Amino acid sequence: MSQYLTTEDTDYVSDGIQLTIPLIIRASALIDGYCKREIGVKAYTERIPLTYEQRGHLSYAPIVDVLEASGRVMTGLMGNFFGAPGFEPIVDLSVIDIDKRLGTLWCGSSPFGSAYAELEIGYTSGWAEIPDKVKVACGLLINQLASNPNSNVKSKKDFDFSIEYFGNSMFTPEIADLLSEYKLLSFR
Question: What mean pLDDT value characterizes the chain?
Fold first, then answer.
């Protein structure tokens, strides 16, 4: 469960709004859903196909560290006569070259000289320190949540109890602009 602010981070919210853990968790969950990922460092395991040039792309960037990798070669020692070869662990992770900022990778050949068809990589991705833009966006969302607890109610009438709902988004253009560089972009 992500928490992008603490109760002491009162600089990110308007005066008069009390930061509570439930508000912080709710706003952080909204940010995770919008960005389709957690902003903090998290471990992922992913199976990626490689091109003939031995290039691929990991889904979540920036990459913090590669934990483990295994690869499936295009053809086994006997060709594909006995079926497709299975995944073998890659002991020397230096054969995988990763651009940690973008998540693109290049992989060398297997120990027997065969090219890999796909890789299964365990890695960590995210930001160790939560960026200020995410904290500002979280503060803006908390301002909206605290000022209007029924965020999807457009109008209320007291005497006949009529309520009109609408599906407006909590993410204003300002919040969307703050979170644009942390949103998951698929390259596949």
Answer: 83
- Residues 6 or more apart whose CB falls under 8 angstroms from that of 68 comprise 89, 93, 121, 122
Closest CA to 136 of 168, 176, 170, 169: 176
Angle made by CA atoms 5, 185, 135, in degrees to the nearest 5: 15
Give residue for tokens 């833009």.
133
- Give the CA radius of gyration of the chain: 23
CA–CA dist 104, 179 (Å, integer)? 22
Residue 61 in tokens: 């960037």
The DSSP annotation for the chain comes to ---SS-TT-GGGS-TTPPP-HHHHHHHHHHHHHHHTS-SS-EEEEEEEE--TTSEEE-SS-SEEEEEEEEEEESSBTTBTTT-----EE-S-GGGEEE-TTT-EEEE---TTSPPEEEEEEEEEES-SS--HHHHHHHHHHHHHHHH-SSTTEEEE-SSS--EEE----S--HHHHHHHGGGS-----
Average pLDDT over residues 148-173: 64
Phi, psi values for residue 60, rounded to 5°: -105, 120
Quick one: pLDDT at residue 64?
94
The answer to whether 25 touches 33, Cβ cutoff 8 Å, is no
Q: What is the pLDDT of residues 85-101, one digit of tens each?
A: 778 888 888 888 999 99
